[in-house]
Write a structure and sequence with these properties.
heterotrimer; A alpha+beta; B alpha/beta; C alpha+beta; B: alpha/beta; Rossmann fold; 5-stranded parallel β-sheet; two-stranded antiparallel ribbon; 5 helices; 17% strand; C: alpha+beta; Cytochrome-c3 Hydrogenase, chain B; 3-stranded antiparallel β-sheet; 48% helix
Chain lengths: 113, 156, 360
């Protein structure tokens, strides 16, 4: 099990907590996407002084998760990656590659989904 | 004969893990010193004679590879360095990998290994030289490669 | 009026294919947009067909330059999943090999960087010295680049007394050579002219955009995973992170040069404390369903994050790798605006881009 794990229910709560953590001096490490119960589970990994904090958020099958790129600009690459690989759609991405960060129109679609 | 005494190479990295690339570069540096065969690494395809390709091809870089190959003047020789460039290697069944370089452009010599040692790469370059020489004498021209089929990205 | 100029994918200073679409106003960059995917293979999908031991060899081939530390970080993740304690000697051996890998990677980068600003003899010099480390790698593991010295549960190779003597001797030779390089990189008028004040990344910005490794430490942020509690072994070896405060290309270069001395110190200390005993323990069974772990390590290019999740079989449920260059690309995009087109290759090289890591 991961340490400092927080389960988050709604996307507005998620944005609020991430903003608070940023003000608290946390650095955005990465986000992990997993398949879970038809939907997807997102694990936000943040780091401060070598201690990780993980936020878990469950994305329902047709839900469009909110992008973190407004808070942490660096989130845009990983979110674009999951648009490619899992076919998710993030709302409010700072730079949206529309599912073509890695893949061309000819490559296999959403290979990890 | 003169061409084989001073072949200029262009190094094209397709889908490589860097392992072969750094060994290709290591060939050019003092310990292995490919320059004693007159080999010079050159940045532009228009001046190159030997195309050294590392890594397999995927759906995005296939077009880059084709463009560079078509720009090299005749006679030209293609050397596939490493397992990935030869057959796709350990990555051959990845979803985004099409396969070895010979799926798209004609390859004249292969260097096996993951990663091949610099000595093996030099050996490959020397083997390519004789191919280059015979192409030069027979006035054999490389075909103008065109992409067709599944590997062509539709926005290309 | 701005012009968009594509930089890459095939470019003389870029060893790897990546494209930056540079928006230029006359000669000055005003914006940059990356275009990735030229090296995307899709390695995270491999876990469906390969078991957790085989996946280690896939992780090694994510990148040829940082291959040693990729495999160590992956192995540590899986060991955490399965609650495996590896022998102490294996911990020390892993440190020795990962620091040797860092030495060769930094020398490689210094060479490429010198070539990037047009100092070709310096490039040759760096790569000449690097061959000493490659010879050690070949002697101790059997291969120069992809070393396969690590496995889940320890290491596959051991260092004999003769190996250790040769390593120590090689480092004693290498250190004065690096001092020579340092004189050129740090004091040379021409080199300074190209690097000082170029591509400045402020401390706050570097932290906010999530930069890692020498890019972050060059901006004055004290962050090195080798100091974290999960790597207690580095503390025993008297490790100190190298920090520079200016945040420009010159500072990032200095971080890497001074890190070389730190690597030599770590290798010497690790060898002097190297305990006797087993080098690996047998690992049986498979990771439990739902068990998950995050493992981190400091690569030559910065912090790498591995996430592994088991599902009760030999195959993993999910493997996610956040590589250092992936985190440094947003930082690079912040550095580029305001600099001249002719300086773009130098700035791009200072984050030590490793595209095959980034795209996997």
């Amino acid at each position: 099990m991961l340490e400092n794990n927080v389960e988050i229910k709604s996307s507005s709560e998620l944005l609020k907590i991430v903003q608070e953590l940023k003000n608290d001096g946390y650095r955005y490490a990465t986000m992990i996407c997993l398949k879970a119960n038809d939907g997807h589970e997102l694990i936000y990994v943040l780091d401060k002084n070598y201690v990780l904090k993980t936020l878990r958020y469950f994305v329902k099958p047709s839900e469009k998760p909110k992008s973190m790129s407004g808070i942490y600009l660096c989130a845009l690459l990983i979110e674009n990656e999951y648009q490619d690989l899992f076919g998710l759609t993030f709302e409010g991405l700072a730079i949206d590659f529309k599912g073509h960060l890695y893949l061309t129109p000819n490559s296999p679609k959403t290979p990890l989904a | 004969m003169a061409l084989a005494k001073s072949p200029w190479i262009i190094h094209v990295n397709c889908n490589s893990c860097n392992g072969c690339d750094i060994e290709v570069l290591a060939c050019l540096t003092p310990l292995y010193d490919a320059e004693r065969f007159g080999v010079l690494n050159i940045g532009t395809p228009k001046q190159a004679d030997i195309m050294v390709v590392t890594g397999s091809i995927n759906y995005k870089n296939v077009n880059v590879l084709k463009n560079i190959y078509n720009q090299i003047p005749d006679p030209k020789v293609v050397l596939a360095v490493g397992a990935c460039a030869s057959t796709g290697g350990i990555f051959h069944d990845c979803y985004n990998v099409i396969g070895g370089v010979d799926q798209v452009i004609p390859v004249d010599a292969y260097v096996p290994g993951c990663c091949p040692r610099p000595e093996a790469i030099l050996d490959g370059v020397v083997a390519a030289l004789s191919v280059l020489e015979s192409k030069s004498q027979g006035k054999i021209k490389g075909k103008d490669v065109k992409l067709k089929g599944n590997e062509v990205p539709s926005n290309a | 009026m701005t012009t968009v100029i594509p930089f890459g994918p095939q470019h003389p200073v870029l060893p790897e294919p990546v494209q930056l679409k540079l928006e230029l106003d006359n000669d000055v960059v005003v914006g940059a947009l990356p275009s990735l995917g030229y090296v995307h293979r899709g390695l995270e999908k491999f876990i469906d067909t390969k078991d957790y031991n085989q996946t280690l060899y896939i992780c090694e081939r994510i990148c040829g330059i940082c291959s040693a530390i990729h495999s160590i970080t992956y192995a540590r993740g899986v060991e955490q999943l399965m609650n495996v304690e590896i022998p102490e000697r294996a911990e020390y051996l892993r440190v020795i090999w990962s620091e040797l890998a860092r030495v060769q990677s930094h020398l490689l980068w210094l060479g490429l960087f010198a070539d990037g600003f047009g100092f070709e003899s310096l490039f040759m010099e760096c790569w000449k010295y690097r061959e000493a480390v490659m010879d050690i790698m070949e002697m101790t593991t059997g291969n120069r680049v992809i070393t396969s010295m690590c496995k889940v549960g320890g290491t596959t190779k051991d260092l004999s007394k003769e190996h250790i003597d040769i390593i120590l001797k090689a480092i004693d030779n290498l250190e004065p050579q690096v001092e020579n390089l340092e004189k050129v990189f740090v004091n040379n008028y021409t080199v300074k002219k190209r690097l000082v004040g170029l591509g400045v990344l402020s401390k706050q910005l570097a932290y906010d955009v999530g930069a890692v490794g020498p890019t972050l430490r060059g901006s004055g942020v004290h962050s090195d995973i080798r100091e974290s509690p999960s790597w207690s072994i580095y503390k025993d070896l008297n490790f100190k992170a190298v920090i520079e405060n200016d945040g420009d290309c010159y500072a990032r270069t200095k971080v890497r040069i001074y890190e070389l001395y730190e690597c030599f110190k770590l290798i010497r200390n690790a060898i002097s404390k190297l305990p006797a005993g087993e080098i690996s323990i047998p690992v049986k069974g498979s990771p439990a369903a739902g068990a998950e772990a995050i493992s981190r390590a400091e690569q030559p290019r910065g912090e790498v994050v591995y996430y592994v999740k088991g599902n009760g079989t030999k195959n993993l449920e999910r493997l996610k790798i956040r590589t250092p260059t992936f985190a440094n690309i947003p930082a690079l995009l912040q550095m580029l605006p305001g600099i001249k087109l002719a300086d773009v290759p130098v700035v791009v090289l200072t984050v030590d881009p490793c595209i095959s890591c980034t795209e996997r």
